[in-house]
Amino acid sequence: MDHDVDELRDVAMVLNEVLALLKSEEKRLAEHRAGRERDHDDSAGSPGQTVIGLGEMTRGLREKLDGLALYAGFTALGLEKRAEGERRRLRMEPRCVPSGTNRMARPLSESTVQALQLLRELDTFFAGGFADRIDQALAAPRATYPPADWEAYRRQERSEAAAPGAV
Length: 167
Hints:
Number of strands: 0
Low-confidence stretches: none
Largest sheet: none
């Protein structure tokens, strides 16, 4: 096993704690919105988009925790090919973090900030600049997704993709 059991346990503990924080925030928001007329504001930072962002992060991180368990299980059972495939998926940065925060109202809730700060600890576990992207999300003054101007958003994405060093 490329990662010792202690490292896997540490990652699992962080993911589990982060999931508990995000689930409590989802519950708090659901209770806050209960009984209120649902507005149809789908703009970045709206209550609906904040709930969607939290849901994205919760589902994505749950998938990472499940992947960690699969990797450990396949390894323990001697299923090396399956373990190797799971290991590659496991080490990829979760797409949901910090992208889910791009939808969320600012200031971010205390639970969300705490969850993101805990996830920063996994910077060396996940591939490439994970902590930097979390720092950018924490510093963002407002939600940015969905964009108010889709055409401008697409132009910016194309220009960033064409920039030297873009992946």
